[in-house]
Specification:
InterPro entries: DUF5694. Keywords: Signal. Pfam families: DUF5694. The protein is α/β, with parallel strands linked by helices and about 280 residues long. Helix 3 packs across helix 4. Strands 3-2-4-1-5 form a five-stranded parallel beta sheet, with helices on both faces. It has a domain of about 140 residues. The N and C termini lie far apart (about 85 Å).
Length: about 280
Amino acid sequence: MNTLKPILSLLILSIFFSCTNTQKPEEKTNEPTAVEPESSGIKVLNFATFHMGYSSDAHTVEFDENNKKNKDTIHQVAAMLAAFKPTVIIVEATPEYNGTLQGNYATYLKDQDAVFENPDEIELLAFEVGRLAGTKRIYGVDHKMEYNYNIGSEIVNSIDSLTINNFQADPFKSIPHLSLFEEGLPLMERLKRINHPKMLDFLITANADILTYAGTENGFEGADEAAKYYQRNLRIYSNLNRLQLGENDRLFILTGGSHTAFLREFMERDEKYEMVNTFDYLK
């Protein structure tokens, strides 16, 4: 019995210290907790559209830019978006065109009935958003580059012709409820669909990533064409970053859907910008 006493004493002490050093889940410590910092990025309304006038894109949406009903609907959309109160408008035009762009904008501010040759989403939507919001500055940030959407059909594809052919035969198969080419689709619904997050993801796939399934036995022809599209959008982003912007500026960016999609990817990782929810305005 005498030999058991020291062992029992050690066991009791061990249990005691174990209990006193175990923190209950509900107990608080003095350790600092991580606090999510408030965002101080430049606010951005990054808005996707289809091209409302002439476009060199491989796939375009049928749209009569001179139809009065279409114009009225676009102006309703503009009124919604103008509530964002942008101080700067960014459009899909090259910086070399900025002088003409700003001159046309000034003309529109003076006369909303001014007639522009071959009007598109810039004259129809961006100008009206700017007028309603009292925006003074407008810039183009586009960058043109040649790339081949159809490379898969022009080579002997040794990677996966089945996948790329099936995708191109029915591109909206995975998101049928968001198809942009549905007959009789109202303009407002079309704009809502093209701004849907799943659609923006799809547009990167359709314009670039799907080409990684095309290539000759030892080549990367499809991937190289996709890289050109990434490069173009990175250069667009670089043009955006060349602009002199202040922390209190608010950007309304209006571009074709695939550019909106890429800009979303870039800005989500960039502390300089903070994108607002498009559907807080497009209601």
